[in-house]
Design a protein that fits this description.
The protein has 6 helices and 6 strands. The protein has helices at residues 49-64, 67-70, 146-154, 164-173, 175-178, 194-206, and strands at residues 11-14, 17-20, 80-81, 86-87, 115-116, 125-126. Strand 5 (115-116) and strand 6 form a beta hairpin. It has one domain. Helices cover 25% and strands 7% of the residues. The radius of gyration is 19 Å and the shape is globular. Helix 1 runs antiparallel to helix 6 (194-206) and helix 4 (164-173) packs antiparallel against helix 6. Strands 1-2 form a two-stranded antiparallel ribbon. A two-stranded antiparallel ribbon has the order 3-4. It is of the alpha+beta class. The longest helix is centred in the first third of the chain and has 16 residues, at 49-64. The protein binds heme C (HEC) (2 copies). One heme C is lined by residues 17, 19, 67-68, 71-72, 79, 81-82, 88, 90, 92, 103-104, 106, 108-110, 122-123, 126-127, 133-134, 183, 187.
Length: 221
C-alpha cells in the first residue's frame, strides 16, 4: 500500500549517496513485476529422471543467476547493483583476511528493512536486512556456468557445510534469501516465489540433484 506521509527526513549526503536515517518516504512507484518460475509438474513430460533433474536445475538457475541473487554473490571484491549488475556505487568492498584490509560496514547504509527513498536518485529504495552482507568467495557465482554453480552449491566444502536437505531449507526458508522476492521499490524480484523455488529445489533433489552437463552460456559476466 503506497503511503503518503510528511517525511521527517534527516538526510545525510555522503559520497554522492543519500543515506536516510529515520524517515517514511512518500512514494508511489509502479510495481515491478517479477518473472514466473516453472513448477515441478511442468517437467513431468521429461521421461528420463536424470534429464528431468538437470532441466529443473536449469530452471532453478534462473533464480540463482537473477541480479537479486547474483549481486550479492560476486567473484570479486565488490558487490553489484541493479539489473545491469554494475559495480556498487559508492565503492564498497569485502574484507580481505589475507591482506588485512578491513571491509566496508554494510549496515552503515543497509538498515534492517528496505528503505524507500523519496529524493530524486537513480534508485527508488535501499535494500535492507539485519544480516545484509556479501556471500563468501567460496559461494561466488559471478562468471560461472550454471553447471559449475550447481556443483559448487552441492559441495559441502564450499557451500557452508550444507547437505542437500539444508541447502533446500536455505533456499526455501532463509530470510536473507527471502529478500530476493521482496527487494523494495524499483527492483524486479527474483522469478516466482521463495516457496516455488523451494519446491523446485526439492523436486531436483528427489530426482537425483543432477547438474546440467554442458555449460550453457546464460551467465556471461
Ligand atoms: C555508503 C552507503 C552504502 C554502503 C556502505 C553499502 N551500500 Fe550497498 N547499496 C547502497 C545503496 C544506496 C544501494 C541502492 C542503489 C541501487 O540499487 O542502485 C545499494 C545497493 C546494494 C546492492 C544491490 C541490490 C540489487 O539487487 O540491486 C547490493 C548487492 C549491495 N548494496 C551490497 C552491499 C554490501 C555487501 C555492502 C557492504 C560490503 C554494501 N552494500 C555497503 C549503499 C551502500
Ligand atoms: C545481501 C546479500 C545476499 C543476497 C541478496 C543473496 N544472498 Fe545468498 N548468501 C549470502 C550470504 C552472506 C551467504 C552465506 C551465509 C550462510 O552461509 O549462511 C549466502 C549463501 C547462500 C547460499 C548457500 C550455498 C552457496 O553455496 O551459496 C545459497 C544457496 C544462497 N545464498 C542462495 C541465494 C539466493 C537464491 C538468493 C536470491 C533469491 C540469494 N542467495 C541472495 C548473501 C546474499
Amino acid at each position: 500500500m503506497p503511503v503518503r506521509s510528511v517525511a521527517l527526513a534527516v538526510v545525510v549526503v555522503c559520497c554522492g549517496v543519500i543515506v536516510p536515517s529515520a524517515a517514511l518516504a512518500q512514494s508511489n512507484p509502479p510495481p515491478v513485476v517479477g518473472q514466473s518460475l516453472k513448477s515441478p509438474a511442468e517437467f513431468e513430460s521429461i521421461g528420463d529422471k536424470a534429464a528431468r533433474s538437470r532441466a529443473m536445475f536449469t530452471e532453478i538457475a534462473r533464480v540463482l543467476t537473477h541480479p537479486r541473487c547474483m549481486n550479492c554473490h560476486p567473484a570479486g571484491a565488490n558487490p553489484q547493483q541493479g539489473s545491469d549488475r554494475h559495480e556498487h556505487l559508492p565503492p564498497v568492498w569485502r574484507e580481505d583476511v589475507a591482506s588485512g584490509a578491513i571491509g566496508t560496514n554494510c549496515s552503515a547504509c543497509h538498515h534492517d528493512e528496505n528503505f524507500a527513498v523519496s529524493e530524486a536518485t537513480t534508485y527508488k529504495s535501499i535494500p535492507g536486512h539485519p544480516r545484509w552482507g556479501f556471500a563468501p568467495l567460496s559461494m561466488a557465482w559471478q562468471g560461472k556456468s550454471i553447471s559449475d554453480i550447481c556443483r559448487q552449491i552441492k559441495d559441502v566444502n564450499r557451500n557452508g557445510g550444507r547437505d542437500l536437505k539444508l541447502l533446500q531449507e536455505h533456499i526455501a526458508k532463509d530470510d536473507l534469501v527471502a529478500w530476493g522476492w521482496n527487494p523494495g521499490p524499483g527492483r524486479e524480484p527474483a522469478p516466482g516465489s521463495q516457496e516455488a523455488a523451494g519446491k523446485l529445489v526439492q523436486a531436483w533433489i528427489d530426482t537425483g540433484a543432477e547438474c546440467p552437463l554442458s555449460p550453457p552460456s546464460i551467465n556471461p559476466q
